[in-house]
Amino acid sequence: MTDTYRNYAELAAHEVEGRDFRIVVKEGRSGIVIVAPHGGKIEAYTSDIATGIALEEHALYLFEGCSARGNGRLHVTSEHFDELRGRDIVARSSLAIGVHGASGDEEFVIVGGRNTQAKALMLAALAKFGATDVGPAHLQGSSHGNICNRARDAGVQLEISLGLRNKLSGADRRLMPDHATAHMREFTDRARQALTEYQRLAFKDTP
After folding, report:
1. How is residue 1 annotated by DSSP?
2. CA angle, corner 167, sides to 75 and 29, nearest 5?
3. Domains annotated on the chain, with CATH
4. Nearest CA among 102, 148, 101, 158 for reference residue 126
């Protein structure tokens, strides 16, 4: 699907912040930022997942669609996503984790990005949730310009299927609410554990 807008400047010329979209920026203490550039109603539940991974430790950036309808028009592909507040917090971070939504009713998460060490740790941590590094080229997050790769040590991209997002969020009505909460907590805890291990290894390798 072709984006309606080529970049943030085009989007901002036609859409109103606070009415059509909102931006959330929260500082953290770890040097890692969790980014959901298609949050809110653009790619459902990616904001919730990103917030759950960040908690108080990691920085957080959310670009959220909140229009009454047609939020898909607010999607600016990650390579062209250049909103200033997002660019700034990512550039000040050592590692960025991009949280995105992929289509598909099956439960999987495609783990991409250019930081190979963090990517390997995330693949292992999320194996229970169908983590894989196999998928379409446009979901691999391999571009240098991808928002998740603009941190100092690049980053990791998580493309989470709609089926899995529905399970984590509780939108899958076949699950009891407490079961969905437990799934979300386990997913975000496992992702956070991968980041803790990455930090430990990075610190160990520092002269």
Report:
1. -
2. 65
3. 8-205 (3.40.630.100)
4. 158
Give the ranges where the chain is alpha helix by DSSP (H). Answer: 8-14, 46-54, 84-91, 116-125, 162-169, 177-205
Are the C-beta atoms of residues 85 and 166 closer than 8 Å to each other? no
Q: What are the backbone angles phi and psi of residue 44, rounded to the nearest 5°?
A: -50, 135
CA 184, CA 168: separation in Å to the nearest integer? 5
For residue 77 the two structure tokens come to 């592909």
Q: How far apart are CA 171 and CA 167, in angstroms?
A: 6
Contacts of 175 (CB under 8 A, 6+ apart): 167, 183
Predicted TM-score (pTM) of this structure: 0.94
- Reading the chain (207 residues) residue by residue, the pLDDT tens digits are 689 999 999 999 999 999 999 999 999 999 999 999 999 999 999 999 999 999 999 999 999 999 999 999 999 999 999 999 999 999 999 999 999 999 999 999 999 999 999 999 999 999 999 999 999 999 999 999 999 999 999 999 999 999 999 999 987 777 666 666 889 999 999 999 999 999 999 877 655
